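Continuing the batch. This is chain 6 of the set; chains 1 through 5 are on the previous pages. Same settings as before, nothing changed between runs. Recording input and output for traceability.
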Amino acid sequence: MMWNPILIWSLKAGLLLSLLYGVYFFLFRNNTQFHLKRVLLLSVLAATLLWPVIKFSASEKPVSTTQVFQKLDESLISPVAEIVPKSIEASEALVTETSSVNSTSDIIWWVYLTGVAISLLVFFSELVKLTYWRLTGTEMRDLGKNVISHPSVKYPFSFWKWIFIPESVDYSESEWTVIQEHENLHLKQKHTVDILCAALAQCALWYHPAIYLFQKGMKSNHEALADSAVLKSTNFGRYTEILLALSLRTSSVTLGHSFALISSLSKRLKVMKLKKTSKRSSYASIISFAVLALVIASQTVSYGQSQSNNESQALKISDLWVASGGQGSQPHYGKEIVEKSGKSPDTWVSLKPQYFIFPVVFLGKHQKLIDTFLTSIQNENPDNEVRLQIAMNTEKALKFENVYEHYEPAPNRSELNIELTVEDRLAMFELTKAWVKENVHQVYPDYPMPSEMQFVANKYLVVRPYTFNPADTVGSKKDVVVANAITREAQPVGGLDRFLKNVVTDVKGTESLKKEDLPDKIEFKFQVSRTGYISQLSLESKVKQNRHEDDVYALLRQLHDNIIAVSNLYSWDPSLEKGKEVSSWVTIEIPKSIL
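Output for chain 6:
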């Protein structure tokens, strides 16, 4: 579900805020360099909100230790806590468990959203109240150009660029001088901006106690800044008397800076008496804070990519341009995954409409149907090997890519069509997601997974059998003739120019994509069988790494699909060796000028 990244971000941000604010409090709670503390608090808030969404790449091997943030990702993204054995005979128990987990996840999500909504409602209602007081209040020009009195105001406080005071209270000259100097310091240093940023963060992290401790610490530091400025011109004893005389038990405005609250007064007086912290001691604390913050940051990085010769091994869309494998076979990257993990799914399928290759784990009842179907085909064709092409699709009628057409179709071109219930598809999705997490992500951490809706949209499991003689397979080294032994090279029916013209038809790029972003040579390589079908189509050109890289891959994918479609339509004249039709490798280059 799309909400997972938001909830994971909030959990990461709350965890990071707890750690960083804990370090700050330990090192700076008695420090009197209040301007420095303000900078550190704002830095902690910025790091808390931004760090969890930043991805990092490393040139070393992917991290082997499980990091704190990675655990959060895995625990929330995967509702299935354990890998369910693929030999399960029925899906009812799994579906029930999955539905229960999904229901719990939905409840958590809606509780979180409700808390965010309530927090935002309180935040904006406070802004509306302050705006109303400003618009309906009386400007006290004799006290200052930014002083507003209002009957609803019970105590002096400042917000944005105004000082609000009660309408019915008359302050002495000495009291007003202290109040004005204190509140103007808040306005001059724009402390309201800090409070607003923290309040918005609190709306997103409303359930985390650290954000409330952080807000309290930020306000205390603001008051310490204002107090220290007033004490430069006012006697400590007189200032204390005024604070006690004007103090209130509660504050009715959380976004403003109240002049004096009893709940925080004793702490403020204690801070005023602290011995001034030396710069040397502050520098030592800053270094300690930086070191500990870097350690925390390094332990919360959850993304690692292995690179070799400046080429990332993380999968791109182009890496998934292989046709789905049949029973017992894997696509290119599937083979590497199986080799490294030592495990294989039931099959690999190309899900529409993305055409990405995904492993799929069957339910026990479907595996039995497929096994029975395969046995019947094998009994009908005892002299040939039988392989199954398996795909999930949105429709019963499925056109398989001609990568398999060099196999002879089984008698009557029979197919097994299994209509999957929603419960079946949900259960298969959870089994598949668990298998990917356990095996694929150990090899390729960024291997994409379809969303639940994308997976469930494919309601048919289509199985097509093929019979072939292994000695006649296109992939057989004996069958594929090298170029120097060919007397006539393979050519598309109608000529190469017509073929390329049809391939580039309807190919569209983005407005920002320019021809210089494309590879210098757009080359594709494939095999042409002796019967005129193509297979093992692959992109040979290297794509330049730049900000239009994804757009380039999207355009090349269109060319890839069109090569298959045009070859299906027109076919190829195979290569000849001494007058005999043979299979061979073919490389075609698509000029950028015709795109």
